[in-house]
Design brief:
Helices cover 53% and strands 5% of the residues. By secondary structure, the chain is mostly helical. α3 crosses α4, α16 (322-333) packs across α18 and α20 (430-443) packs across α21 (452-464).
């Protein structure tokens, strides 16, 4: 959905009002995989059609927007033809054929005739046709040739590059580069990829990947006990999400440093609401709504694992959840699969008044069907116990019961999220997991066995760069795995 919205605004103006459309869903962790593997629902198809008609109406009914988008004082045939040639190229991300332009001209003429000769209304229907076409709503990636492994054309490459690195369609400069053959070469792809990443949209696009990777968008759906946590407002949730994305952008772009430092850094980014939760100085008026802060040396909070968004997402309505937090580490950060509970198993604790969290979690080991998986999650999750269900630091888990945040990761003992962060920063599984997730997000599919060499090469280049995210993105988009379609995917299809 963000890609659709960004592309529409790039074509029609930032102030255009986009009608509501059924939100994207995630598959295997990413919306890019879902959009590539699932069909669009009938409801969404109708909404896209209605949106196209409404957006076209906004263009033509507003003289200023019409002049900006169409660029014609009067809808004479020559000017309108030039507009659709130009507009169609941007919207469909390739030059339109004479036959396609002819069909659009026919629609304009027929609509004009049906509407008392109002040619502007005819242009409106021509715009709506373009905006509801599969060529606009889908990315077409057929590649050159008839072999199974086919190189993306320059225009297909421009589209893939732009959507992955900027979350919007290619601009005229990138389309011109495609026409000139610059995107047929690795050096040309790298040159233009650098330019895209240098844009603010480049920062935002990679941050959206990171947010999807960690399920940060779930913070908006989090429900907490309003009596216990009255400060859990929508404004605080927005600040929580912004902290994670800003921290990633700081590591990946501003500091341009080793990605693994995200687990150990003492830097954070706070809104006034989040600053109150953390007990740090809120943003000053000259700093804007969010500001960078250095956490105190004695703070239990530090690095990504101390981010309130993740602590709140992976907790229960009124209490912490060592199991959910431990599972997050296993699945999201180490890429290890944890199966769901067996059917019929009660995942809630009985009312054990006076029992500590550690004592309640220990009950999992008493059930043979639970013990195996919980032994992988619970010892990790207990290390997060210094933070309550909304990520607020605490000393007691209940009156008179001190928090015990000792944990264990694969036999290595640690205390608190800071020590766990250091363990993860040095864990050899973390970087390959991050590369795998970025590969899935960028290519729009789960990696196949024949693609393991691609992942290994990317992981090695990631390490050689000092684990820099920006360089990983450049290595990926210049790789054959990104520049070709078919091959491994088609060979492994039944």
């Amino acid at each position: 959905m963000p890609q659709y919205q960004n592309t529409v605004r790039a074509l029609l103006g930032d102030d255009v009002v986009i009608p509501p459309i059924e939100p994207d869903i995630k598959l295997h962790g990413f919306t890019s995989i879902a959009t590539g593997e699932l069909t669009v629902s009938p409801v969404a198809l109708e909404e896209y059609e209605l949106a196209a008609l409404e957006l076209a109406r906004q263009v033509i009914s507003n003289p200023d927007r019409r002049a900006s988008v169409v660029g014609c004082e009067t809808p004479d045939e020559e000017c309108v033809s030039q507009f659709f040639t130009r507009f169609g190229r941007r919207a469909w991300r390739r030059p339109l054929t004479e036959a396609e332009l002819g069909r659009i001209a026919d629609v304009v003429a027929q609509a004009s005739d049906a509407l008392s000769g109002d040619r502007w209304r005819g242009v409106e229907f021509g715009i709506a046709l373009i905006l509801q076409s599969p060529d606009f709503l889908y990315r077409v990636e057929l590649g050159d040739g008839t072999d199974r492994r086919r190189k993306l054309t320059g225009y297909e490459m421009a589209s893939r590059l732009a959507f992955v690195l900027t979350e919007t369609g290619p601009d005229d400069a990138l389309l011109d580069a495609a026409a000139a053959g610059e995107l047929d070469r690795v050096d040309g792809v790298r040159h233009h990829a650098i330019a895209l990443l240098d844009q603010p949209r480049g920062r935002d696009a990679l941050a959206r990947f990171f947010g999807e990777y960690l399920n940060v968008e779930r913070i908006g759906e989090v429900s907490k006990d309003s009596v216990l946590f009255p400060q859990m407002t929508d404004a605080l949730k927005l600040g929580m999400a912004a902290e994670v994305l800003s921290l990633f952008q700081y590591i990946a772009f501003d500091a341009d440093t080793d990605y693994r430092e995200i687990f150990t850094t003492d830097q954070t980014f706070v809104t006034k609401e989040l600053a109150a939760l953390y007990g740090v100085e809120p943003p000053r008026p000259d700093e804007g709504p969010i500001a960078q802060r250095t956490l105190p040396a004695d703070s239990p909070r530090g690095g990504l694992l101390g981010a309130a968004a993740l602590l709140a997402i992976y907790a229960d309505h009124a209490s912490t959840s060592p199991t959910r937090r431990g599972r997050f580490v296993r699945q999201n950060l180490l890429c290890e699969d944890i199966p769901p509970p067996p059917p019929g198993v009660d995942t809630t604790f009985a009312d054990n008044t006076g029992a500590t969290v550690r004592e309640r979690v220990a009950m999992h080991s008493n059930n043979a069907s639970c013990a195996g998986c919980h032994s992988l999650m619970d010892p990790i999750g207990l290390g997060f116990e210094r933070f309550d269900a909304i990520g607020q630091a605490r000393i007691e888990e209940a009156p008179g019961i001190l928090v015990d945040d000792r944990g264990e990761l694969d036999g290595i003992a640690f205390t608190g999220v800071r020590e766990l962060g250091t363990l993860l920063a040095n864990d050899p599984r973390v970087a390959p997991c991050f590369v795998t997730q970025f590969y899935r997000f960028s290519t729009g599919h789960l990696e196949l066995p024949l693609e393991r060499d691609n992942l290994e090469e990317l992981t090695q280049s990631f390490a050689a760069s000092g684990f820099r995210v920006r360089e990983l993105a450049l290595q990926l988009v210049t790789s054959d795995a990104f520049r070709y379609v078919g091959g491994a995917i088609e060979e492994e299809m039944p």
